[in-house]
Write a structure and sequence with these properties.
This protein is α+β, with helices and mostly antiparallel strands and about 130 residues long. It has two domains: about 1-80, no CATH class; about 85-133, no CATH class. It is about 50% helix and about 20% strand. It contains five helices and seven strands. It has helices spanning about 25-35, 40-45, 55-60, 85-110, 115-130; strands at about 5-10, 10-15, 15-20, 20-25, 65-70, 75-80, 80. It has a three-stranded antiparallel β-sheet with strand order 4-1-5. A two-stranded antiparallel ribbon has the order 2-3. A two-stranded antiparallel sheet has the order 6-7. The two termini are about 35 Å apart.
Length: about 130
């Protein structure tokens, strides 16, 4: 299942209520950027709102409202809020574990690393250490 969510901002400008929104395919965004880009500026760009305008300042002053989560994103969604940091961490860990899965299966004969949380944590820590070294 695709990890997805809708991000919107509702604000008033020149007597009109505006609600720019975007449906995000979180897997595609994470693969492209490695993180979820700043959503205020993304919404402004997608809806032709100049970043040097008063309209942009009004947009930027409002909180992002999230809706319609799908996939694992549902676990990080609560009451129109989205734990972006938690989702990004989960996505990166899952991506690493997917890459390590064949090694884990071949070398340790383990089909589901999630059944071994201590080992999973050691492998992720070793991976992060290797990236920094």
């Amino acid at each position: 299942m695709t990890n997805k969510i809708t991000a919107a901002i509702e604000f008033s400008f020149k007597g009109q209520t505006l609600k720019p929104s975007v449906k995000l395919d979180l897997d595609a965004v994470m693969k492209q950027h490695g993180t979820i880009p700043p959503l205020h500026s993304l919404l402004a760009t997608l809806h032709n709102i100049d970043s040097y305008s008063y309209e942009y300042e009004m947009l930027e002053a409002e909180d992002i409202i999230f809706s319609d989560p799908g996939g694992v994103a549902e676990q990080f969604f609560n009451n129109s809020k989205f734990d972006q940091t938690g989702f990004e961490k989960y996505w990166h860990e899952s991506n690493v574990l997917d890459k390590l899965n064949q090694i884990i299966k071949t070398q340790l004969d383990i089909d589901d690393i999630h059944q071994h949380p201590a080992l999973k944590n050691v492998l992720l820590a070793a991976y992060e250490f290797g990236k920094k070294a």
